[in-house]
């Protein structure tokens, strides 16, 4: 088994995550982390709870055919020591 790819996803644009999910499904899988910005600042998803359901629906609503994805919440700490929840999508080829 080779290395896994890790992508940081934008929690404000759930539909935009579908490209990454499909790419992982067509490759060796990977992990998509939502709540960590491109500059590696941990912002979490706590303030975006209304988006969590939409994020979880991406593999079904925007990927054709649907893609099997494993979801998990990961507890993180921001640079001020404040706890934050991040969201992780992980998938691997069937």
Characterise this structure.
The chain is of the alpha+beta class and 94 residues long. The chain has a single domain (5-91), classed as Methyltransferase, Cobalt-precorrin-4 Transmethylase, Domain 2 (2-Layer Sandwich). 22% of the residues lie in helices and 29% in strands. It has 2 helices and 4 strands. It has helices at 18-25, 49-61; strands at residues 5-9, 30-34, 70-77, 83-91. Strands 1-2-4-3 form a 4-stranded mixed sheet, covered by helices on one side. β1, α1 (18-25) and β2 form a beta-alpha-beta unit. The chain is globular, with a radius of gyration of 13 Å. The mean pLDDT is 80.
Provide a compact summary of the structure:
With 94 residues, the chain is of the alpha+beta class.
Key descriptive features of the protein:
single chain; 94 residues; alpha+beta; Methyltransferase, Cobalt-precorrin-4 Transmethylase, Domain 2; four-stranded mixed beta sheet; 29% strand
Which CATH class is shown? Answer: Alpha Beta
**CATH topology title:** Methyltransferase, Cobalt-precorrin-4 Transmethylase, Domain 2
Largest sheet: 4 strands, mixed
Number of alpha- plus pi-helical segments: 2
Quick one: CATH superfamily?
A: Schlafen, AAA domain
SSE-based structural type: alpha+beta
User: Strand share of the residues?
Assistant: 25-35%
Give unreliable regions as ranges.
none
CA radius of gyration? 13 Å
Counting structural domains, the number is 1
From the 3D coordinates, which CATH architecture would you assign? 2-Layer Sandwich
Global mean pLDDT: 80
Shape: globular
The counted number of beta strands is 4
Biggest sheet strand line-up: 1-2-4-3
Order of helices and strands: EHEHEE
Terminal-residue CA separation: 14 Å
